[in-house]
């Protein structure tokens, strides 16, 4: 139970993709300012900032991005606390949760949460190498396991257990590219065919290039405040109903069963309990499809489908916009793009957009409760957030 | 990678030394100083334990996109191997044609180069897995 | 004190390339090369293999076949001309990998193709004098020939390890001697990737003189003649040289055949005579007598007179792969793959 109810009153997001013209600080500021304007703030009301970022130190040789973002947002003279949070792919969600707890506890009133990653300033090889460090560097990456190959091993086992077919896994990419084509901020704007996924160049068998989320630049931001103050800033405040965070072994091989992420189950359980809700109450969900296979695990671990049912659900269109549970309406990590530290915050931006009814061509009808599910590593950190129309 | 980081793991890299909990007997790889099952009662009771090196493939993937250091091996096979002691380990499979690999295949640890620090840097040796001859 | 072989292990990488394939690339008659050298294929190490990994594979097989405490090994020498480091021993990795360290004397040896047998002599001396209980001598190489050079048809990879001691000996080393002169028939200067050689000079004044003299001196010392030996193993830079040597000394093809590996694997340099001996021991019977003569360019020959003992009946050969099994489990590669594996393609730094 939270001490104070928390609302999202502003959102901002950059275009995701290869943003050659923009630096890390530029995209960070762009998303932040958009969120601040969206919340009708002047800026001086801001009490604190949290920045989700995985590896600016290796992508742009810049640590200390909390102060950097605060400074270039014009906050240096206000001397507000600004904190950078890191949990690989879950960095953005953890920053959000820190912000939520800061507001809920009464420590701060107006908090800006940002997430940003600038990945294309290094080569693709270097970028993938940095991503490998989300796994166990000493006992996975050094042994030759790439981040993609760890997910490929999950897929290999998942298919062997009969939980889904290769085609059902690939269908996740087809669905998310379709959704991405409806999202002007998405990195990929074109629908693709199943054959395209299956015949694309192999990354780690059985996963091809189209099973993997891309390398992206991008930033997203949200503004939080206590629910009781929210109507001062917006007509459509979105309430944080529940949050949950969990961790697991850093290395995938240390798990008894690699076809499930127990941390997702635990984080979801906490969020459901805090919200007093169940899976069937969720109208729209953004899940961590860093690889196609990850989406199927997420849908099962979040309680939407029994094990072995998620693949069929995707195949039958249940997870498309218009289906019984629209999943990754933004295009997901797969098509919207996956600038690591920004992803968790971008998911919140999408859910808020849906709950406000502002999602235009990709709007889910009568969406009142939404969920975001964000993963760091191979299920080593998981954050689940449930939002609702206030 | 600084030489010391690799050097201090040599017993685990060459001979698969992990830990055995003196309290519950569970085996871990690599070394752990606390048993996740027993926690406090395991402190000071974790013993060094050498795995037999024999096991079977639990899952695997043929890797086509890899860091430059591994380019010459592409495509290579990475696997999670379930050791006979029950604990699992991640490593490459060598001396096997990709199409012959399957879940459940018997393998054993061999020692190979797992990387180096460039042409003038130290060479890292460590375990990989090869199929057990019939 | 009786000194001899307590255990041994061999290792040959799995990949093979044929002289025909090499000749195809360099516009040479590979078939004629194969016939002239009596090499039908040569072993090629995987990119993740080097002298250290080959030595370890052989040493681990050696340890599997006996039940001895690795802490009782007092010395370990790795003989090679392709040690992966110019400075930093291969042997320390091997000692650590078989858990024989830290109370052990380790050194890397180099004497072209006879560094492995030089190591055998060194540990024999220490065991015989009572300095150590067991010693390990390993000969291993991953030698390179310059692209298109005649050596490229033969230079291959492999190695064998021998545990020398005075208890539970499966093969007694009755005597050893060395015949050494300064004869520059083959060399590689520091920093050079490929060796150079004296062409036909490597034959008469080098290989045949040293191997022949050492063999004759050994038989003279032991009062033996070729007929007294069941097996003879000569250094084998190709299949033809040892055949000719055997004929010159009066040995038959049958005596030579068990330990003659170049037709299948090429020239494994420091691994050559050790692998030949491993191949002979794999199928040896008690009482078998072996004459073994190594040769290292530069130049010298180490000769050994060996008798297989009754203890070999109880030797746990099956605990590790035999030479024959490694000659069977192979995979042929093309020249492009070979060039990639052997670092002959200029990569981006
Ligand atoms: Zn325990």
What report would you give on this structure?
The complex is a heterotrimer of chains A (390), B (134) and C (349). With 390 residues, chain A is an alpha/beta fold. Chain A has helices spanning 24-38, 56-59, 65-75, 91-104, 124-132, 147-160, 166-180, 194-199, 227-230, 262-275, 292-301, 310-315, 332-335, 340-356; strands at 6-13, 48-52, 82-85, 111-118, 202-204, 207-208, 217-226, 238-247, 284-286, 369-376, 381-389. Chain A has two domains: 6-123 and 216-238, Peroxisomal Thiolase, Chain A, domain 1, CATH 3.40.47.10; 135-212 and 240-389, Peroxisomal Thiolase, Chain A, domain 1 (3-Layer(aba) Sandwich). Chain B is mainly beta and 134 residues long. Chain B has helices at residues 3-7, 10-15, and strands spanning 17-21, 27-28, 46-50, 54-63, 76-83, 88-93, 106-116, 123-131. In chain B, strands 6-5-4-7-8 form a five-stranded antiparallel sheet. The mean pLDDT of chain B is 95. Chain C folds into two domains: 4-171 and 322-330, Peroxisomal Thiolase, Chain A, domain 1; 173-312, Thiolase/Chalcone synthase (Peroxisomal Thiolase, Chain A, domain 1, 3-Layer(aba) Sandwich). In chain C, 33% of the residues lie in helices and 25% in strands. Chain C has helices at residues 19-26, 30-37, 51-64, 91-97, 115-128, 203-222, 240-249, 253-257, 262-265, 272-282, 323-328, 335-341, and strands at residues 4-11, 15-17, 42-44, 73-79, 105-109, 134-142, 157-165, 171-183, 186-187, 196-197, 231-234, 289-296, 298-308, 331-332. In chain C, strand 12 (289-296) and strand 13 form a beta hairpin. Chain A binds chain B through residues 125, 128-129, 132, 136, 138-140, 142-146, 148-149, 152-154, 156-157, 160, 201-207, 251-254, 258, and chain B through 5, 9, 29-30, 58-68, 70, 73, 75-76, 78-80, 88-92, 98, 103, 114-115, 124, 126. Bound molecules: zinc ion (ZN). Zinc ion binds at residues 21, 23-24, 26, 35, 37-38, 42 of chain B.
